[in-house]
Amino acid sequence: MTTQVPGYVSKTDMVAALIRELLITGELRPGEQLRQRDLAQRFGVSQTPVREAMRRLESEGLLSCDTHRGFTVVAADLGRVEENFRIRAALESLGASLAAGKVDPAGLRRLRELNEQMRALAADDDDDPRYAELNREFHFTVYEYAHSPLLLSLMRLLWASLHGGPRVSRTHAESARQHDQILAALAEGDAGAASARTYQHIMGADPVKELSG
């Protein structure tokens, strides 16, 4: 999946979005120290927007700043992860309900393709980066059809706080089966069912896995 940075109006916005993307994909791990100079070179900007972006991400609870170590990625704690799961369930169920009336045949076809690719991966390989990427694309494809930029922005922030995206204890086959149920509701244009099944899909996961994964 090609990385797409949300619309921005300044270099600080751009850098903040790119760092969130690195948190979502898991390239930046909890406790990792961030160097302004390295990130400035990577993103092709001066250190000023990098520093401003880091301050913004600190206010969002994604980074912490220490006088001696500088900025580091915040490690998740169980209470925060559980809270984020509840917020995700509320927002993503809303996104699915909005998408149910708007998703087109091409979108449904893409979602089915993604789900079949997830189903085909080894059931016992929880660390396979392909699964996490496919799962992320599946969920965000649904929410893009909600046509709500604010919802997408909030979802990116939540997924960034889960460092590498949500990890769950259920099998790949069970996740794919639940995706099938969400897809059926979307195909029928049933907003209520799409919302309920998405909520159950998220809340049925084990947030403790986030801390051990």
Structural class: mainly alpha
Radius of gyration, CA atoms, in whole angstroms: 18 Å
Task: Give me the oligomer status.
Answer: single chain
Q: Roughly how many Å apart are the termini? A: 23 Å
How many H/I helices? 10
Approximately how much beta-strand content do the residues carry?
under 5%
Uncertain segments are 1-8, 209-213
Report the average pLDDT across residues: 83
Percent of residues in helical segments? 55-70%
Shape: elongated
Total number of beta strands: 3
Q: Which series of helices and strands comes N to C?
A: HEHHEEHHHHHHH
- Major β-sheet profile: 3 strands, antiparallel
Taking strands numbered 1, 2, ... along the chain, how are they ordered across the largest sheet? 1-3-2
Protein traits:
213 residues; mainly alpha; disordered N terminus; elongated; 10 helices; three-stranded antiparallel β-sheet; single chain; disordered C terminus
Overview of this structure, please?
The protein is mainly alpha-helical and about 210 residues long. The protein has ten helices and three strands. The protein has helices spanning about 10-25, 35-45, 45-60, 80-100, 105-120, 130-145, 150-160, 170-190, 190-205, 210; strands at about 35, 65, 70-75. A three-stranded antiparallel β-sheet has the order 1-3-2. Helix 1 (about 10-25) crosses helix 7, helix 4 (about 80-100) crosses helix 6 (about 130-145) and helix 5 packs antiparallel against helix 8 (about 170-190). The longest helix is centred in the middle third of the chain and has 23 residues, at about 80-100. The protein starts with 10 loop residues before the first helix and ends with a helix. Mean pLDDT is about 85; it is low at about 1-10 and about 210-213.
